[in-house]
Amino acid sequence: MRLIVQKYGGSSVGTLEKIGKVAQRIIDSKADDIHLVVVVSAMQGETDRLIGLANGISDRPDLRELDQLLATGEQASAALLAIALKNLGVSAISLTAQQMKLRTDGVFSRARIRSIDRKAIDEALNSGAIVVATGFQGIDDEGNLTTLGRGGGDTSGVALAAALKADECQICTDVLGVYTADPNICKTARKLNEISFEEMMEMASQGSKVLQIRSVELAMNHKIPLRVRSTFSNDEGTLVKEEDKHIEHLAVCGISHSKDEVKLTVRNVPDQPGVASRIFSPLAAAHINVDVIVQNISKEGKTDVSFTVSRADGAAAEDILRRVTEEIGGGVIDIDNKVGKVSIVGVGMRSHPGVAAQMFETLASAGINIEIITTSEIKVTCVIQREQMADAVRVLHEAFELDRAKPSQRLITPAEVETKVKSKGKTKAKAKAKKPAVVKTQSKQVKKKK
Ligand code: ASP
Ligand code: MG
After folding, report:
1. Helix (H) or strand (E) holding 195
2. Which of 75, 246, 326, 422 is surrounded by the most beta carbons within 10 Å?
């Protein structure tokens, strides 16, 4: 028996009509030798609606009660999907976190999964049923309902796939897969056929919103192949998997960006051991993710430190920074709310020298000033002004030739996607005829420097 986990996001189950279509799709993908576990998010807009209700009473609703409230969204969509499946004559059962004993820690609104007891799921699967599990929710040791943070349904899907040792975890969503850049701002962006876990991690952490980063991390740790695909198209999507020698790596596989950054700079702090930790420890304690950090060369025993946080954390980070600078003495604080970051990502960077230089040259010739640079082995990130972001993404996409198909990648352009989506619903033969030609792989071994 193969076991497949399919996760459907809120937009896939946003209306009763869509729930009906998803039910049909699930039935079509169910074969006798496949066990199916389906994980659902709340219907589109439902989580926001519930948060709105709570905020109508209080700006800071009690987090335990908020989780109790938000968890209802997933319970409703799971039950509705199970009703739809049963209505179509197949055996199905919806299960909540409590029924699956999906345990988390007790951090309300951003809980982490600890364990899943597979007994209830196995029993249902062995009886021939399709399991429809609630995403996003868990229970803590005291039996309180918890939630995993916005977008946490992806993490639920992967965690279930890992616990059940699934053969594949499919994230079914409203895009065709992972793109070389955001197709909304880069018209020549292409869907990638495959991407490695590491690249996906960098793409997700640098702003690509297609997958929640924790879900990618979990899939990588448990070696569960992840397939990102569209709920309402037959395209095979993008397979996120372990790096293998058969993929001919481009130096760069994608450009990711995030407009939601704030740059904080504190000038003239004493250049002494312990200063960085005094600045960043309280930020960590407040669960604020700090991304790009630079410290300048010191002049006369004083130095400047700059870093970025997401816009959502900007105000909290500023408060902490003001408090800390008062304590450590000195410090003029600058806040720049108009920045964003653009990154190039690719495991091919390990074996292609000069990639970073090419990025800087490309941005320079487009008149884009780089404010901060950070790199990892497979990523280069530049902090730039937000208003130049769209241009930056486009020029980099072109410079790294991501708009052109490479032999080893079955890439399709948005225009081809249109054809595909339109041809869906017409006869199969027609849809087939419009399918873009697939370019055969000429795999070339890439020597890994290690
Ligand atoms: N329903 C939750 C949210 O809207 C979880 C999810 O969709 O993944 O964030
Ligand atoms: Mg969602």
Report:
1. strand 194-196
2. 75
